[in-house]
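FW: tagging you since you asked about this chain on Friday. Here's the raw sequence from the shared folder, copied in full. Didn't touch anything.
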Amino acid sequence: MQTFSIKTQERNQMLEITHIINEALEDYSGQDGFVIVYVPHTTAGVTINENADPDVVHDMLLTLEELVPHRRRGYRHAEGNSDSHVKASCFGFSDHILFQDGRLVLGTWQGVYFCEFDGPRTRNFHLQIHTQS
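HL: got it, structure written out here
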């Protein structure tokens, strides 16, 4: 398992990590398999989405804030980040992604994103690489 550190700058932010994963797969040239991306935080997650147009990330974060606002009457969690827990649970904390010849198998416009919902912070994510036998 490999662990990577990432610094976020905003409370809600999506940082593309596709290049980090592909670099980790460089030693697997000629091999096929899958990689697990795991985020060990309760207020951050991971997703795959479009990486060509930055407006997609903007629109996703805008919609999330409308659906799950930061300040909402009725939240009970004392830390004041209930929305962050809800958003992270909606996105999920791991993804399995296929790779072929040491490169992620993604669609033309797809990228892998680390999703921050309680930043700014320094966070970690883990990669576990599995090859075909």
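FW: The first strand starts at residue 2 and ends at 7.
HL: agreed, and The beta strands are 2-7, 13-16, 33-38, 44-50, 94-100, 103-104, 110-116, 122-131.
FW: great, closing this out.
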